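Hi Y.,

Following your request, here is the sequence exactly as I used it, all 73 residues.
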Amino acid sequence: MLNIVSIFVGLVTLALGLVAFVPLLGWMNWLVIPIGIVGAAIGALSSSNGGRNLNLVLIVIFAIRLSLGGGIF
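Below is the corresponding structure, written out as tokens. Let me know if you'd prefer a different format.
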């Protein structure tokens, strides 16, 4: 059950993160990354690794996007 919740949190993170890829909305990554961390923590509590891995990949992608934009853009 926790894996399903973690995947759902990951999908919400992905949806918000895609909006953050729009130029001048990169500041949203500051909101998206903590949501992904919560999803990864929930996924770590489950017996399956799918949700945790999804959230970890999203955290890395959005952290790279944040660093390329200089932390703001």
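The mean pLDDT is 91.

Thanks again,
Q.
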